[in-house]
Specification:
By secondary structure, this protein is an alpha+beta fold. The chain has a single domain (15-265), classed as ApbE-like domains (T-fold, Roll). The chain has six helices and eleven strands. It has an eight-stranded antiparallel beta sheet with strand order 2-3-4-5-8-9-10-11. Strands 1-6-7 form a three-stranded antiparallel beta sheet, with no helix packed on it. Helix 1 (52-70) runs antiparallel to helix 4 (124-141). The two termini are 35 Å apart. 46% of the residues are buried. Mean pLDDT is 84; it is low at 2-13, 274-280 and 283-290.
């Protein structure tokens, strides 16, 4: 995983989960926890019933295992040893991630590429979302069905934050410190954003091997976080064409903010507000997007 902590400017992360609970509702006390792991910060917000303590403990152990196995900054990690040809029989988790990266490369026409020009296998753009999806299963095994997991700004929610309420995820404004571009609202959400406004030009265009200039940011909503994470990374290389490309992909919704400040969103993007917060001008309409 990436060794640079993925801090953001919307509160503490690129995307903030803003709970949406109707006044007067009550229920079990929420459990909130923070874990520094995988070069980022994972925040837990568990609601409703279930074994909260056991769920968080199991997820913590899982993320520590992922960090040990997939860190590209630890020379003893399995993924680094695999890249050096020192792993004769990859673990089931590594085999699953390799297969997922290969499938993503085919599905995106090579825009997702886990093998940089230096030849090292780097599945980081897939692993973070994949590991959060797996952590969600661990929470469910402990009877927790209403929760939010935020891994460095990539957010997965399940269930509801309270009776009749929906989760609201704030999307970081790429140009204004401390501001939101818009809100995503729903129950079962998987939201990932790619951009260079926090960490500079760290995303690569696989077609050229050079840093991707991209738009200002690409936010993708999908049914799982591994998909949202990988496709937002892949789309970033397309620059202003990212929105139209994502609109043609089944099961994905997207919000693209261009470098000149225009916003383009797909027709089904689950915004929680009628206009973006700190509204940006809309781009001219494109086929399949609005």
């Amino acid at each position: 995983m990436d060794g640079a902590e993925d801090r953001g400017r919307c509160g503490s992360y690129r995307q903030a989960v803003i709970e949406s609970v109707r006044p007067g509702t009550s229920g079990p006390e929420p459990t909130r926890a923070v874990q520094h792991v995988m070069g980022t910060v994972v925040s837990y917000d568990l609601r409703g019933g279930g074994d909260h303590a056991g769920a968080v403990a199991a997820a913590r152990r899982w993320f520590e295992e992922v960090d040990a196995r997939f860190s590209t900054y630890r020379e003893d990690s399995e993924v680094r040893r695999f890249s050096r040809g020192e792993v004769a029989e990859p673990s089931p988790d590594l085999r699953a991630v390799i297969a997922a990266c290969q499938a993503l490369a085919r599905a995106t026409g090579g825009l997702f590429d886990a093998t940089p020009a230096d030849g090292w296998f780097d599945p980081s753009a897939c692993v973070k979302g994949w590991s959060v999806d797996r952590a969600a299963l661990l929470l469910a095994e402990h009877g927790v069905t209403d929760f939010s997991l935020n891994a460095g700004g990539d957010v997965l929610t399940r269930g509801r934050p309270g009776p009749g309420a929906r989760w609201r995820v704030g999307i970081q404004h790429p140009f204004e410190r401390g501001a939101l571009a818009t809100l995503v609202e729903g129950t079962d959400l998987a939201v990932a954003t790619s951009g260079t406004y926090e960490r500079g030009a760290h995303l690569r265009d696989p077609r050229t091997g050079l840093a991707a200039t991209g738009p200002a940011s690409v936010t993708v909503c999908a049914t799982d976080l591994a998909t949202a994470d990988a496709w937002s990374t892949a789309a970033f290389a397309l620059g202003d064409d990212a929105a139209a490309w994502l609109a043609a992909q089944p099961g994905l919704e997207a919000l693209v903010i261009t470098l000149d400040g225009r916003t383009v969103r797909t027709a089904g993007f689950p915004t929680g507000s009628p206009v973006p917060i700190r509204a940006l001008p809309a781009a001219p309409p494109l086929p399949g997007v609005r």
